Each structure stands twice: as C-alpha cells, then as structure tokens.
Predict the 3D structure of the following.
Amino acid sequence: MFNHDLGIKVRLGRDPYLLAWGLRFLRQCTPARKRANTLPKLRLAFYSRDSINALSEETGIAYDDRRKGILYLSRSRESLDAAARNYGFLADHGLPIEIVDPERMAELDPGLAAARRHFAGAVYSPTDQTGDSRLFTTRLAAYAGERLGVDFRYGTMVEGLDIEADRVRAVRTDAGLFSADSIVLAMGPESGLLGRRHGLDLPIYPVKGYAATIPLEDESRGPTMGGADEDRYVAYSRLGNRLRLSCTAEFTGFDRSFGPKNFAAMFRTAHELFPGAFDEAKAELWAGLRPMMPRSVPVIGRARYSNLYLDTGHGHLGWTLAAGSGRLLADLIAGRAPEIDTDGLLYRN
C-alpha cells in the first residue's frame, strides 16, 4: 500500500463496495483456502492450454505464441526459497518445474545474460506458453464472423435484462432488445454491476493493470521466452519482434485513466532486465480492469435464470483460462458432459 515502486496499490476512498469485497477477500487469505482455490484454477489452466492449442491448429490462427516455458525470477535467496515452496505445491499437482541458478537462467533465455547478476535464481516452468491475447481475439473474431456466421455488435451498450418468469426474455441495449435461447454474462468487471441488479451474487471488483507493447530495437538483447520479475511484480512476453510488459494491481474503482508516471517503475525494471533492447518512447501504453473475485477463481455455469450463464471473474488469469472456460461453458449450454472436472468452478448463488 505504501511502496509505490511495487505493483500493488490501494487507493483508499469512500468505496463501501471495496471494503465489503476486501473483507470477503481476507477470508480467503489462509493456507487452506489458498490451496483450495489454486487447484481448480490449475486444472482449468491445463485444460485451457490444451484447448487454445487445439483451437489454433483447427483455425490456423497465428498470435505470436511461444511454447518455450516461462521463468519466474527471484532477486534474493529468501524469495527464491518462497517461490520454490509455492511452485512446489503446483508441481505436486502436475505442473513440471525446475529451480535454476542465474547461469542456467541465462542458458534458457540468453536475453537475461546481462541481468543475471541481479537474481538469486528462478523457477522454470517448461510447459507454460505466451502469446498476444489481443491478436488472438481479433483474429478469432474475424474467423467466427467470416466462417461461422457470428454477428458482432460493437459499440452497443448493454442496459439490462428483460426477465419473464424464470427466463431472460431478452437483453436490453441502446440498440433495442436482443433475444436468444441462451444468454452469457461475460462483461468483465461490469458483470457484478449488472448481476446485482438481477439478484446475482457476483462480488467482482475491478483491479486496474497496465501494459506496454514496445518494438525491439535490438532483438538479440530482448527475451526469447516469457517471464516475470516476482519481486517487482513485472511480467514480460516476447511477441514476435515486440516486447510486452505488464504490471500493477491497482484498487481504484472503475477508473481506467493512465499516464506516463504509471509506467515508470515498469520501464526501470525492464531496462534492468534487457538493457539496450528497446526505446520506451516508442511504447504503446494501455490500462484495463481485471474482474477479480475474492477467491480469485472465475465463475462459470448457469446462474439464477434457466437460460442465463456466466463466464466471468477471471481476474489476472483471463488470458490463461479463456479458452478452457469457453469450451467448458459451451459444453454446459449444449447439454454435453464437460471434459474437465468442474469441482470448484461452477457458479453457486
């Protein structure tokens, strides 16, 4: 809360919903709850990885993906030991990991050769992947529109649901009513706002994050795989000839504003990691809101009404869990048995 160089910021103000959400969040902050909440996310992440790989193969969509693993970097022996314990729990449940020293870090990713002296080591997860989420979703939308007949209505404001008995008769928008056999509520952080108006307990709070996408001036100095500076809360991905950085969990309501100062600490860390690789003046800056549930597990499945479904609350793992969540929800709507164990994932009001 008080170290502005770190990636977690809370703007205390007159937001009673943040207080209510925070109390529910604190109840999840025990070792037992952490383990209970981690397992369904891990299961869904494995399923999602397989789902997006199958989907990209089927559709031919390219999205600058890299399947070389991810390095989780630690700056001190203490933080490396803590990371080893945390990731050890994931390893016990199926995630391959390797604890590596700085020399091995640089072997795995030569882009870290200059920075390895700043680190005690890293956790290497060889089966993790990275990719450009924006590129993937825009190309998937184009594929769905051209090949599958999907009609996207961009710039249309959802205003509410038209309820009749136990069903959603239509979605009310500023462009009129839209009716369907099934309705999916997947509105990111606004899901909670709409849900509460219709009797759904969706304690979703918006948590702002920042990202910068920068062309690499010297590709040999940039990373060859994805990674994260665990002590600085800065993540990075190599997307073709670009570097994408992301940082910060900022509790500031629905404020989406940003300015250069919001990226200063991120750039300082990135220059330390990859000196000479990029010119921050050429960065494309962005800020968005992550839809966080108190237990940080998404809510998926049928809600209060017989034809209303949810796929929301993914928090900072939206891209990680997206393909698997969509596939799971499609099976539920179609009445098929899901291919994944749904324990801990399905919505309960």
Notes: Residues 290 and 316 are 6 Å apart (CA to CA). The mean pLDDT is 95. The first helix runs from residue 16 to 26.
